[in-house]
Design goal:
Blueprint (H helix, E strand, L loop, with lengths): L2 H25 L4 H16 L12 H23 L2 H8 L2 H11 L7 H19 L3 H24 L7 H19 L11 H26 L4 H7 L2 H14 L5 H17 L4 H8 L1
Length: about 280
């Protein structure tokens, strides 16, 4: 089998595992912080043997990465509990919009039609989803939207070169997340009320939805282009609400579905390679 085909298969496996997050978060009868802590602890323990402690160097970029990652994990579980799984994951996937705004405002990137049009579609999709929300659902959607900003910062800082391995980054991030919850929010941890099914769900999230999935993801990205990996990654926001609908019966509203379609289209447009750049590279 060619490396490209293997890479696509690895990414597909990773996305299927990632997509189970919404389902198990809905099924586990525990608060968001308990699930987040349990999932991160198990994932951290899995990667613990692979952490290159001697190579770890604390930099501004890595501190930003850890903060954004902690917020991302906590808010994804929280918003999945508060709003529909579909809203939580698709609003998180608005990261391309926020990353673009960051480059324009902070980095002085020039605004071009090719860059601007896809982001307008993403923005219109956000407006559609938030426009039909009310009460607690609106608050959950707004929090999910901030998760898209956190996801953008995670992507931005993951591109930096660190002296330690990807496995070290994943393991250390989850350990720091656990410590942060223990220090700041210990009163929100409630494992005593978990059923056997709840424990099994948290173990699955830690081992497969976070641990094994990231191993497949990083391995796949190294075998195919970043563009192809991004396109295949769209499986997560598609499969996540499908799994929740099949096993939980949760169905997004018609307006939300329209918003999803608009956002998906905008994200897809951001992934179309620039022909002018390709032509320059060919010469």
């Amino acid at each position: 089998m060619k490396n490209t085909n293997r890479g696509i298969i690895y990414i597909v496996i990773a996305m299927v595992l990632f997509s189970t997050g919404g389902l198990f978060i809905k099924l586990i009868d525990a608060n968001a912080f308990t699930i987040t802590f349990g999932r991160a602890l198990i994932a951290g323990l899995i990667f613990l043997p692979f952490i290159q402690w001697k190579k770890i160097r604390i930099s501004k970029s890595y501190v930003m990465l850890v903060i954004a990652y902690c917020y991302l994990c906590i808010m994804f579980v929280t918003t999945t509990k508060m709003t529909t799984a579909a809203n939580a994951i698709i609003l998180q996937c608005t990261a391309p919009l926020w990353l673009y705004l960051f480059y324009v405002i902070v980095k002085g990137k020039k605004i071009t039609k090719r860059d601007l049009v896809p982001r307008i579609f993403i923005l219109l999709g956000i407006v559609a989803i938030l426009g039909e929300s009310d009460g607690g659902n609106l608050f959950g959607n707004l929090l999910a939207l901030t998760n898209g900003i956190a996801y953008a910062f995670v992507q931005y800082n993951m591109e930096k070169d660190y002296p330690f391995s990807d496995a070290s980054v994943i393991g250390l991030n989850n350990i720091v997340l656990c410590l942060a919850i223990l220090v700041l929010l210990p009163q929100n941890l409630a494992f005593s009320g978990l059923t056997v099914q709840g424990w099994l769900g948290i173990i699955f999230l830690g081992v497969f939805q976070i641990g094994v999935s990231y191993l497949f993801f990083f391995k796949g990205v190294r075998l195919i282009s970043a563009l192809k990996a991004s396109i295949v990654s769209l499986l997560e926001p598609i499969l996540n609400p499908i799994f929740v609908f099949i096993f939980v019966g949760e169905m997004p509203s018609v307006v939300s579905l329209i918003g999803f379609g608009i956002i998906f289209f905008g994200i897809f447009l951001t992934m179309i390679p620039d022909k002018s750049v390709q032509q320059i590279r060919e010469y």
